[in-house]
Amino acid sequence: MRPPICAICRKDFRHNMESGGSVRFTRSAEEQVRWKALNKPGYVGHPPGLEWFCEKHLASAKAHRHLTWKEALPIIKALEKE
Ligand SMILES: [Zn+2]
């Protein structure tokens, strides 16, 4: 697992874990293959499609979890500018 740093604004909230959270997005075909290769006993890396968000970006990330991370990222970033 990566440290909890917001995927949108890079805010590091590892000293205040309750302020943000992780969202698991739909895995793309490529991520699905990668996950199968990685998901073995003793695996300690970061699962594909899982991203961290600070309190400001967590709600919009959750609203787009049905998309892949690549699809969701530009949408969440565009929402932020509104
Ligand atoms: Zn953020």
Overview of the molecule:
With 82 residues, this protein is of the alpha+beta class. The chain has one domain (1-34, 48-82). The chain has three helices and two strands. The chain has helices spanning 29-38, 58-63, 69-81, and strands spanning 21-24, 50-53. It has a two-stranded antiparallel ribbon. The radius of gyration is 13 Å and the shape is flat. The structure holds zinc ion (ZN).
> Rg from C-alpha positions?
13 Å
Quote the beta fraction: 5-15%
Distinct bound molecules: zinc ion
Number of helices: 3
Main beta sheet? 2 strands, antiparallel
Please list the strands of the largest sheet in the order they lie side by side.
1-2
- Total number of domains: 1
The outline comes out as flat
What is the typical, i.e. mean, pLDDT? 92
Key structural traits:
alpha+beta, two-stranded antiparallel ribbon, 82 residues, binds zinc ion, 3 helices
Short structural description:
This protein has helices at 29-38, 58-63, 69-81; strands at 21-24, 50-53. It has 82 residues and is an alpha+beta fold. The longest helix is centred in the last third of the chain and has 13 residues, at 69-81.
